[in-house]
Design a protein that fits this description.
The structure is a homodimer.
Chain A lengths: L1 E6 L3 H11 L4 E8 L15 E3 L12 E4 L3 H13 L3 E3 L8 H15 L2 E3 L8 H12 L3 E7 L2 E2 L1 H8 L4 E10 L1 H8 L8 H4 E9 L5 H9 L9 E6 L2 H7 L5 E11 L5 E11 L2 H21 L4 E3 L14 H7 L2
Parallel strand pairs in A: 1-2, 1-4, 2-3, 4-5, 5-6, 6-14, 10-11
Antiparallel strand pairs in A: 7-12, 8-9, 9-10, 12-13
Helix pairs in contact in A: 1-10, 2-3
């Protein structure tokens, strides 16, 4: 059995917990938390909840730590700290800062003799793999990535910070006409506004100035100003009834040309439709935890990404069985 | 430059030739043929056409041979013969015989110290990879593979063997309603007949008994008897005008569940739409030739499949560039 520990028990940590339960070759041996352990109620019986500053006591008792901290701020600190003692997987998703994060984690892992795999999930992750395979096969072409329809936690949080807002959910929605043009191989040039719209469901304080809130949302730089944004004010009851899920998904499309004169057109499309973003991401993390365990057993060290991992390492079955049944 | 040789200059060989032309880090150095070399006209200037029995003269002058022989009969003989002297890629696609072919090629490659990668293309190949990643992430679920709309060479050949048939094209067509049910996550049980239909365009000899030909097609065991098949008799002119392309494609869909009680549903879909099956397959072969070249340089030996190849090995760029731009 591969012994898994989870660091951070939020939505993603719970998703990893469920994925471990559904993996026949894995067991959850600890959950590390910064909260008071007495306040953390796991759904897996008999697993200790351990203060994060006592993590080192688990050296030799854990094969892979899945770091489920908040991405933008936590992971650049916590993944290297974990890599100093354990093999570790994270889902670091600030694309622009991946090279820097990779370098830091690689340095620590090489020194400590551990295996780390960063930026695992679906984007970065499965979408990145799709882009890579599609680029390898069709070097002459264009990639497009569309996200949604799904909840963006970052955009929801941004709305919540506006004065007079009690709660909010923001859905990122791909523009169907743009997707259709890409799928047809038109290779259109698309502005940010032409690719996605943003739908906001907002619960305001009683008596709040709704026009001001709507204006603050729609003009917020980076988050909303470059998009066509719609704002719906709803009651707390409606939010709780209709908007508590965390669905997401999207698609990667590459169309490209082959032939002596590039006269032949092909389209590759990969599409995810996810009822729960954190549960799906947790399942991807767990597949890569299996790969990290195997690389560590072979004596490998250092930082990796999904690009460096042979796909067979993700599966519990051996090579002969995979060739017979999946190839 | 990676030095590529092509063994067999049919449709697939021509597809590989075009893919090499479009790869900045590769050059075509020879085409091996069983035909009279004088009758083989390449589209790449200055490349020698060499009788296959003189292949060994190219030891040390070729990095990877891409074996483009006819799959079902040729490759089990020719890939091991090539592997005794060169790193080699093939597109062996008789799924049931892959384990046997793998064992033979692996034995030869290990002994000769060469690298081989078999069953490369889109199915087996990119579709197999999609199935594997989807199974790794969603171990609880069901896979479905649909092929088409596209030309099946084997089925077209089977029609051509019928008495009174001058030429024919057979299109495999997925049943759209079945695809829609799978995409919606219904996990339906689908018979062979419910997944695909077969469309035949047939040129008959003048005065041939069309009713007999149609009946012979529709009742042909394995090829057509289990399917809803339509037969259209057309003129040679119409066949030449409308049915000379070799388009293909299809999709892999896996829907599966996550969560502590498997209560959450997800769908993964991968879709190819190809104007030319051999050109696209040739492009996949060439990406894996790059991987074989790199494995050989690292001193690895033996037989591999797409499952064993880390995706970064397929790309000309180095790891840092890939992380910065594709992850």
């Amino acid at each position: 059995m591969i012994r898994i520990a989870i660091a951070g028990y939020g939505n993603l940590g719970k998703g990893v917990e469920a994925a471990v339960k559904n993996a026949a070759d894995m067991e959850l041996v600890a959950v590390f938390t910064r909260r008071d352990p007495a306040t953390v109620k796991l759904r897996t019986p008999g697993v200790p909840v351990v203060p994060v500053d006592r993590m080192e006591e688990y050296c030799g008792k854990v094969d892979v730590v899945v770091n489920c901290g908040g991405s933008a701020t936590d992971l650049p600190e916590t993944t290297p700290a974990i890599a100093a003692h354990f093999s570790v997987i994270d889902s670091f998703d600030t694309h622009a800062r991946i090279p820097e994060h990779f370098a830091t984690v690689d340095g620590v892992s090489e020194k400590a003799g551990t295996v780390s795999i960063i930026s695992v999930g679906w984007d970065p992750g499965l979408f990145s793999l799709t882009r890579m395979y599609a680029n390898a096969v069709l070097p002459n072409g264009n990639d497009y990535t569309f996200w949604g329809r799904g909840v963006s936690q970052g955009h929801s949080d941004a709305i919540r910070r506006i004065d007079g807002v009690l709660d909010a959910r923001q859905y990122t929605v791909p523009v169907e006409d743009a997707v259709a043009r890409v799928r047809a191989g038109e290779n259109p040039e698309l502005s940010v506004r032409e690719k996605h719209t943003r739908e906001c469901y907002v619960v305001a304080e009683e008596g709040a100035d709704l026009a001001r809130i709507e204006n603050e949302i729609k003009t917020m730089p980076n988050y909303f100003a470059d998009y066509d944004t719609t704002v719906h004010f709803i009651s707390m009851e409606e939010l709780r009834e209709k908007h508590m899920g965390i669905p997401h998904g999207g698609c990667v499309i590459r169309s490209g040309n082959t032939g002596m004169d590039l006269e032949t057109k092909h389209t590759i499309e990969y599409r995810l439709q996810l009822e729960s973003n954190p549960e799906f991401t947790g399942s991807v993390l767990i597949a890569y935890a299996r790969a990290a365990f195997r690389l560590a057993k072979k004596g490998e060290t250092g930082c990796h990404t999904v690009f460096d991992i042979a796909p067979a390492l993700l599966m519990p079955e051996d090579g002969a069985e995979l060739r017979a049944h999946l190839l």
